Amino acid sequence: MLPSPFNELDKNAYAAKTYDEGEFVFRQNDGPYSIYFLQTGIVQLERHTAHGDKVIIHRASEGQTFAEASLFSEAYHCDAVTITHSQIIVLQKSAILNAMRTNLHFAETLTARFAHQVQAYRHSLEIRSTRPAIERVYTAIAQGMLTSDVISLATEIGLTHEATYRALSELIAAGRIRKTARGKYSLA
Amino acid sequence: MLPSPFNELDKNAYAAKTYDEGEFVFRQNDGPYSIYFLQTGIVQLERHTAHGDKVIIHRASEGQTFAEASLFSEAYHCDAVTITHSQIIVLQKSAILNAMRTNLHFAETLTARFAHQVQAYRHSLEIRSTRPAIERVYTAIAQGMLTSDVISLATEIGLTHEATYRALSELIAAGRIRKTARGKYSLA
DNA sequence: TCCATTATATGATCGAAATCATATTTGAAC
DNA sequence: GTTCAAATATGATTTCGATCATATAATGGA
């Protein structure tokens, strides 16, 4: 349920909590006390500038952890607000830091998790910079990114699903991919 | 010169190397032996699919490290090719893993580095998804992202410099920002 | 089984940003 | 001081993808 290495933590190192839409999970300059695993829902991380402008830093979605960097800072640097009703596992910062210091395997697995996330985000940025859309979709198919449905893929690569469906049609017409089933495609 | 915590490594844990344009820094399925700090130049990470398509995973630019995730894998999963003549510091994987296991401070600083990179990439993805361009540029200015020149900012936020200059003009016309000097702007 | 919802798919239109072009300003190099 | 390159800036045009619309097929629940 919890992603590795957090599943190795002692049970009392974390607790499940539910939040209504619009609740604050934490506030800028608070704590930081915890990092978070979002089981269901959406949480938005926002910062307020000196001029009062709201800046959205990140939108966390289901299955993601957030506020990891607060493990290494003296305060949260943004607000976290639930956009929908959300179920969140709250992981004690102190417990994680302690596990990092006393459990070499935990420490290494956590570092690996972050390193792989860096890799994945770089990849995401790269594919989102691929233009035009037809090449972006082709690249995504070539990499086997169409694992669930086309709409999810579209979101992942930063296109509307309409643009993605159109690109898929054009790729078929050009003989570059084949349709193997409804919503399933493979390279020609 | 080397970003923290790599500057704490023993001198013989790394070595500077120069590569001509088009040279391979490493190849898919090799090693992995090392991670890399790119001092000057551009390095492209590419993968080849079963169908022979080249997929660009990431373009590393000056001042960045790359292939960090290979610390935790049994082989490089892509090729690294220099796009321009490049100066690279090659850091021994074994030395880094050793430092992680024997030096708690090194381990924690490395984990923090990755966590902060995750945070930065999430932020980058978020701002790049901000539409229209004028709001993206405003958000960037509000966050103080214009630290060097407009062209660099444009690249950072995923716009052409023309679009960025135009957005800046419109923001001035709308009274939302002020021009403080050539190429310098602040919130109105 | 029927109904509601979601995914798939394509058509039409529009607008935003890329592209191409050009001028000016500035700073660095010689 | 002059030259050259790079950054700043704006204009004209085009194109790509977003948006809005609509239809069908599949899926899950009552």
Keywords, separated by commas or semicolons:
homodimer; 188 residues; alpha+beta; Arc Repressor Mutant, subunit A; four-stranded antiparallel sheet; 5 helices; 35% helix; DNA-binding
Summarize the structure in words.
Chains A, B: This is Cyclic nucleotide-binding domain-containing protein. Chains A, B: Residues 12-117 form the Cyclic nucleotide-binding domain. The structure is a homodimer of 188-residue chains. Chain A has helices spanning 93-102, 104-128, 133-142, 150-157, 161-173, and strands spanning 14-19, 24-26, 34-40, 43-48, 54-60, 65-66, 79-82, 86-92, 177-181, 184-187. The two termini of chain A are 37 Å apart. In chain A, the strands form three sheets. Chain A has a four-stranded antiparallel β-sheet. Chain A has a four-stranded antiparallel β-sheet with strand order 2-7-4-5, with no helix packed on it. A two-stranded antiparallel sheet of chain A has the order 9-10. Chain A has five helices and ten strands; from the N terminus they run E-E-E-E-E-E-E-E-H-H-H-H-H-E-E. Chain A folds into two domains: 6-125, Jelly Rolls; 130-187, Winged helix-like DNA-binding domain superfamily/Winged helix DNA-binding domain (Arc Repressor Mutant, subunit A). Chain A is α+β, with helices and mostly antiparallel strands. Helices cover 35% and strands 27% of the residues of chain A. In chain A, strand 4 (43-48) and strand 5 form a beta hairpin. In chain A, helix 1 packs across helix 2, helix 3 (133-142) crosses helix 5 and helix 4 crosses helix 5 (161-173). Chain A binds chain B through residues 47, 49, 51, 53, 55-59, 68-69, 71-72, 100-101, 104, 107-108, 110-112, 114-119, 121-126, 128-130, 138-139, 142-143, 158, 187, and chain B through 47, 49, 51, 53, 55-59, 68-69, 71-72, 100-101, 104, 107-108, 110-112, 114-119, 121-126, 128-130, 138-139, 142-143, 158, 187. Chain A binds a DNA duplex (30 and 30 nucleotides) through helix 5.
